[in-house]
Amino acid sequence: MFWNTNEPHGLPRDPFKSCVIPRPIGWISTISPDGVANLAPYSFFNGVAGDPPMVMFASGSRSAEAPKDSIFNAEQTGEFVCSMVSYELRDVMNETSAGVGPEVDEAAYAGIEMEASELVKPMRVKAAPIHLECKYFGTMDLPADRNGGGNAICVGHVIGVHVDDAVMKDGMIDVASFRPVARLGYMDYTSVEEVFTIMRPKVKEAAE
Prior knowledge:
The chain is mainly beta. Helix content is 12%, strand content 37%. The chain has one domain (16-191): Electron Transport, Fmn-binding Protein, Chain A (Pnp Oxidase, Chain A, Roll).
C-alpha cells in the first residue's frame, strides 16, 4: 500500500506509529511551579546527541489553553528527570499514563516509590535501572494536529546519570538484564531480549 498522509488511509488505526519502531519509553518526572510532582511516560523519546548528552521527548495535544504538564513544568522550572522503564515496571508505567489532572501526583496515584535526585529537584523512580537528570534546553513547537491541538519537542541536557550496579557487567550496561521497554504501534510494546554486536567496518583500500 501507499499512503499520502494528507489523505485518509482507510485502515482501522493510524499505521504511522508502527513504522518508526521500536521507540524507547521516556518516563519523565517534573515538578510544577506550584510544587506538584508529575510523572508521565512518553514514547516519542530518544537520545539526540552524545557530547554533550542530550535527550528529547515530544507530546501532542499541546496548546496555550491546555499545555502538556511535563513540557510546561520543564519550561517553567528548567528541570526534568527521565527514568528508563524495565520490563518489570511495564504495568506500573502504564498506570501513570492515565489522563488525570495537573493537580494529581501520578507516582502517588500509582503507588510508585520515588527517590531524590542528585542535581535537580524532580525525583526519580526508585525501581528504574537508569535515571537521566536533565536541565531544560529548549522547546520546538511543531505543526498543529488535525484536531487543532499542538505538538512540541522538549530537549534537555543530561547533567547526571544514575545506573544501578545490578545492571552493570564488566564495566558496561547489560541491557538484557533489565529488558528495557519500547513502544510499537497501536497499543503494542516490546522489550529487549536479544542483543547482537556489529563492529564498524574499516575503510577499504582502493585497488591499484
